[in-house]
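Re: that chain you flagged

S.,

Sorry for the slow reply, it's been a week of failed gels. I finally had a moment to sit down with the sequence you sent. For the record, here it is as I used it:
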Amino acid sequence: FGQEENQRLAGQMPPREITLCEDETFHPQICLVGIEPVSNFILVEQYQPQRDAETWHQCVSSKLAGLPVTVCQVTSDAAKAIIAHTEQYLGAHHSPDLFHVQYDTVRATSAALAGQTRAALQGLEKARKKIADLQVEYDSCREQCPQDTLVHVLEQHVERAETEESTATEQIHTCQARQERAQAARQGLGRDYHPVDLETGQPLTSDEVGRRLAGHFDTLDQVAAEAGLSSHARDKLAKARRALDSMQATIAFFWTMVATRLASWPFNASVQEWLRQELIPAYYLHCVAEKAGTAQERQRLRALAAEVLARARSPDGLWGTFSPVLQADLESKARQCADFFQRSSSCVEGRNGQLSLKHHALHQLTGRKLQALTVLHNYGVRREDGSTAASRFYGVASRDLFRWLLEHLSLPARPHRIQQSA
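Prediction finished late last night. Pasting the structure tokens below so you have them in one place:
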């Protein structure tokens, strides 16, 4: 079914430029997985003896043969083979996966800073216990022999212990503040790595995004220096920071692709500017809102997207001069442009997790079983709107997989009747 549908739908598919998310998983055989993130269509999912750039190229090119598709961008971790496959074989842009950047910053700072806070809390507890013990001894001595010089000595010990308690309290506040600054900086990488400002809805240049991201990396470096983190932690931060140029280049790539699309459409400069400043940001915010981590943030972003979209659709502006057909076409084009920015390969990570569960249950996934699972994902799983990954990818409705199975699978024979003895 998958082979028949792939051939049939490829002939009806309009030309497209796509992003591909790539990663490897192990069962323990090497399994290469490549997914188009907008449709969630699995383009590549097969076992291979190697995972070098040449192998990636062979797998992807064989799947793209006969498809009117151009891969303009690949989103993945910093695997050298995938980057080489992207830049040397596909001639496409490589977008770094945000999760792996943040993961390195978490590994560098989270556990170490939390350990310092725990140590400070233990120091405070120890200081308070020392004060309590000294206070008991001091009160006892003062009652029994108030004129003894030991009373004065114990009083000094209590004062020093109280000073240690105050110092330990200050140390806790300092450690907790460092944790909060580091956490805010890590979260800031995700909040500011967008071509549109999530607070105002205004488009952002690559330079502005680069400055914001650099500020968060500077904060992490400063916290590491203040906390005296290990060289290993600083190396992790340096590794994460090396992705900054690629992240900034991804923002520039997004706006370059948008500009190329706008220039290829028969619209004047005012319409192009309106699309860039209002309609495309509105649909981009709508996409981001659906992926936000909390209900409160989703509601906020949806409200902001609705506000920007209402401004773009103002009847007193350009929107009022367009026909309903042109309005629908412009909105479709704006959605396509918003989809160009892909900063995460989470669709592949999720698929790898599913395959791991299947492998755990079956202990082995044969190539044939893997192909069947790929077809089920592409043609069997439906979203709330009833669409499959294949229909979203090809832009054409696919046949019903379950109906096809009913037509082609033979029903199992009835079991033999067991004759019971008298």
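What I noticed first: The first helix runs from residue 2 to 10.

Talk soon,
D.
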